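re: the backbone from monday

yeah here it is again, tokenized this time
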């Protein structure tokens, strides 16, 4: 007996994505899932670049793919997702990102996992690639997929299928929103993790399937990477205030490391033992990064990784840790709203 395929709505938050939006649109066009069962809602935060024109041209050329663009007056990712959910007609919601390129069978495999009842939110793994063809951008892509940069984030490490805390983007039945609520608009980042935390507290499960794959384009420069990870760290603390049990070791290490460096640097002005401790801590840290960079440079036969990899990792750790600590201090003067 044939199984009726459910309808799917792909929702995409978007703002000034002219560099990557065409890749996403073409990837959606190549999906193996029947187009008559799909529609796409792009929620745009009033882009000021050429993003809207690119999307309009694509719609005109490919009317067989049902695609609409709506405004996101809130201008944030969670508000974009909620605006898109209001327009979604599909039984299953597939959340994607304008920086991502899903493999052709991405939607098909996601729907199959739901039909098998494997999880309430289903996601896959990232194949991280450089945002630009520059040595530092390629170094950042390698760092983002390395355990020193990804920690135990399984979706960056291509594991076996398993239940996990969170997945990037994810897909879920629309009825789930009625049970656990929409995305929390008071969190400007970490909205996915918070959504999955609520899901798990409600007794539901998050399923990671490495056969569900997408390409994710990492940031292209050190300043872009730093801004991204400061934001990640800042909003992680705000989320942990609500769900302290979700703290993982990989999230605690950067702020502890940064705080240790700051305290030892200050104390070493007066205490000689602190100077030795600071030298040992920094020495061991940079030795580990240097050896990892050397190993990657030899393995990939790319000499620039000897410098680029440690530089990217230092940026990720320090920016994440500083953002986290800044949020801790700022939160003492501001009580976050409960989502």
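seq for it, each position gets an aa:
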């Amino acid at each position: 007996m044939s199984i009726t395929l459910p309808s799917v709505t792909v929702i995409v938050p978007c703002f000034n994505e002219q560099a990557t939006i065409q890749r996403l649109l073409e990837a959606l066009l190549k999906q193996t899932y029947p187009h008559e069962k799909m529609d796409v809602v792009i929620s745009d935060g009033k882009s000021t670049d050429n993003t809207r024109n690119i999307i309009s041209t694509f719609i005109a050329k490919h009317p067989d793919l049902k695609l609409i663009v709506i405004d996101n007056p809130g201008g944030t990712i969670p508000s974009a997702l909620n605006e898109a959910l209001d327009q979604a007609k599909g039984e299953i919601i597939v959340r994607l990102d304008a920086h991502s390129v899903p493999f052709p069978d991405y939607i098909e495999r996601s729907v199959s996992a739901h039909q098998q009842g494997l999880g309430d939110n289903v996601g896959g793994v990232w194949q991280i690639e450089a945002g630009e063809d520059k040595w530092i951008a390629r170094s950042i892509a390698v760092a983002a997929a390395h355990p020193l940069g990804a920690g135990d984030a399984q979706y960056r490490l291509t594991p076996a299928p398993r239940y996990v805390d969170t997945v990037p983007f994810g897909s879920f039945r629309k009825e789930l929103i009625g049970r656990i609520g929409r995305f929390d608009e008071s969190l400007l980042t970490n909205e996915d993790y918070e959504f999955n935390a609520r899901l798990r507290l409600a007794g539901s499960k998050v399923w990671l399937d490495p056969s569900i794959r997408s390409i994710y384009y990492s940031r292209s420069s050190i300043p872009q990477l730093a801004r991204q990870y400061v934001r990640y760290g800042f909003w992680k603390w705000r989320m942990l205030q609500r769900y302290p049990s979700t703290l993982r070791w990989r999230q605690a290490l950067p702020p502890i490391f940064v705080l240790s460096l700051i305290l030892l640097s200050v104390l070493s002005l007066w205490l000689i033992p602190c100077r030795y401790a600071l030298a040992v801590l920094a020495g061991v840290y940079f030795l580990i990064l240097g050896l990892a960079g050397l190993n990657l440079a030899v393995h990939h036969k790319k000499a620039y990784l000897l410098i680029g990899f440690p530089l990217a990792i230092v940026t990720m750790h320090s920016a994440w840790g500083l953002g986290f600590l800044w949020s801790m201090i700022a939160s003492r003067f501001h009580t976050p709203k409960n989502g």
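The chain has a mean pLDDT of 89. The CA atoms of residues 123 and 170 lie 4 Å apart.
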